[in-house]
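tool=predict chain=A
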Amino acid sequence: MDDFLRNVIFGFEHVLDINAYDHILFITLLAVPFLFKSWKKLLWLVTAFTVGHTLSLVLVAFDLITGVNMSWIEFLIPVTIAVTALYNIFTAGNRHRDNSPWIAIVIALVFGLIHGFGFSSAFKMLASGGENKILLLLEYALGIEMAQLVIVLLVLVFNFIFTAVFRFGRKEWVQVISGIVLGMVLPMLIERWMW
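tool=predict ok
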């Protein structure tokens, strides 16, 4: 039971690590266009991201992929955040967002793969001492999903407060939050620029 809790907490803390806030920014961007009534659609997106994140860890932990260029991954992580922020800014309030939910799910899965590769070397070191890598991955993924749901819940509460209580326009709210996140990720992009 101690190992289970330790691994779940490790995944939980990985997401909520304020020093590595890229995960928080990405989940915030996934959640900000949604209200409580659309929680099922949002849950699919968040879970797809977790599945992608876990799949990349599986690929590295079992040496199915080796030699991942971490410079590219470290650059692509803020790219995924910037792309999601820009998508939110330009599509906020558009009804077409609900027409192709599978496209959004696949994109969340791919972005999860990229974010997972960013943590893969640290996870591989953690998994190297254990015998049951699959169990470790599942416990870790549970912690990730729990932390992401905490972020989602907080974002949905803030969405409700600002759009229902303070009567902030939903479109404008999504654009403002996405713009703030975009502003936060631009220094990461510049710092990690590959050319």
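DSSP finds seven helices and no strands in the chain. The CA atoms of residues 117 and 192 lie 16 Å apart.
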